[in-house]
Amino acid sequence: MAFTSVLAWIPWPSSPSSIILAILIAAPIIIHLRDPLSSIPGPFWARWSPLWMIARSQSGNMHREMIHAHEQYGNLVRTGPNEVSTADGEAVLAIYGDLSLPIHCIGRRKFDLFPERDAKVHSSQRRLVNAIYSMSGVEELEPYLDDVLRVFLDRMGEVDRERVDMSYWAQLFAFGYSRFSKRFGFIETGDDKGTFAQIESALQSAAWIGQVPWLYWVHDWLAPWIGNRLGITNRHGLLRQIAADKVEQRRSKDGGGHRDILEKLMEVQRRNPERFDGTAVLSNIFAGSDTTALSIGAILYYLCKYPECKARLVDEILAESKAGSIGRANVPWEVAGKMTYLQACIHEGLRLHPAAGMSMPRVVPPEGITVKGTYLPGGTVIGANPWVVHRHKQIFGDDADVFRPDRWLEDDATVKG
């Protein structure tokens, strides 16, 4: 009776306009009170829609934006209505170390490991190509890499003392090695034939479309009337066509004695035609080429920016050269893997400039998880941006933004990561 008496005294709105106004005021309050993520700080608009993530993904500056967000809001940041980002090292290990946590994505292409959500299917698919990407498998490709490296160094000799864009040449190099026993000719001509612009457009488009994946399918449905309006639909463009031609040429010659990645992938296809089709071969041929180029370019950039590190690395290389361990264009992995300062420079370059600028989100299991005292219910999307984690001062110290290869040569107590 008391409750109904209180209700009777409330001045409930009677006109349609006042009812609508009351709903508009009450709805956000009710949503906030019932929201299990309401206690997690983050940008205001990120609480209500994916627009915050879409805008930053489309800008191509997501990595910097996420660093700023974590500096402002802390280790756990709300980045969407049902998504959070973490910078905590222990949480990163829990999220990405637990293979049972499904990848957050919508849709799937046949044999594409990147978006595969089912852990069992993912493991089954990986087993098909594990041998190709194992260390022993990669070492078999050294002769092809040495050949491309010789051509690359010859071209660098031709442009000696000229001002060149080394990030561009790193891309030419990355796309020229190990996939095929015959090169594309990119290094020889110094021209990518517009391929890199296509890839850049596809990646930038994929970054923001990934936040609203349903838009991709709508665009696909409308394409006959509106044409292609999304860069992601081009994907690898010319490179993909070149690869398809190479596959057909190799198939007609039944291998021809080559032992490059293409031939190894085609062997997998011949043994597993139902599980590994032509699309799978093409997807694997260029997997990682762009990230390899970014990593090479980043390492070269930091060595140029920090001349004292470059000088020390040159000394190590010259010492190995005088010992006869390496040649002008022949640096065996067996030797390179033991060059401690070289490896430290590589690790530091990869730390400061990760090839991926966005997180690889996972879905919290039904029972939920607790991250540093904050409970996340099942179904919550959580991820960690590598740029945030790799520059986190709680992990790498106060000089986390500095290129300092020696941190990888120090003891484990000093290098917390």
TrEMBL record:
Q: Does the keyword Oxidoreductase apply?
A: yes
As one GO molecular function, the record gives: monooxygenase activity
Q: Which residues cross the membrane?
A: 12-31
Q: What is a single Pfam family found in this protein's UniProt entry?
A: p450
Question: Coiled-coil region(s) at which residues?
Answer: none
Instruction: Kindly list the cofactors needed.
Output: heme
Task: Give the top-rank taxon of the lineage listed in the UniProt record for this protein.
Answer: Eukaryota
Q: Which Gene3D superfamilies match?
A: Cytochrome P450 (1.10.630.10)
Claim: Transmembrane helix is one of the keywords in the record: yes
Q: Which UniProt keywords apply?
A: Iron, Membrane, Metal-binding, Monooxygenase, Oxidoreductase, Transmembrane, Transmembrane helix
Q: Which family does it belong to?
A: Belongs to the cytochrome P450 family.
Protein name per UniProt: Cytochrome P450
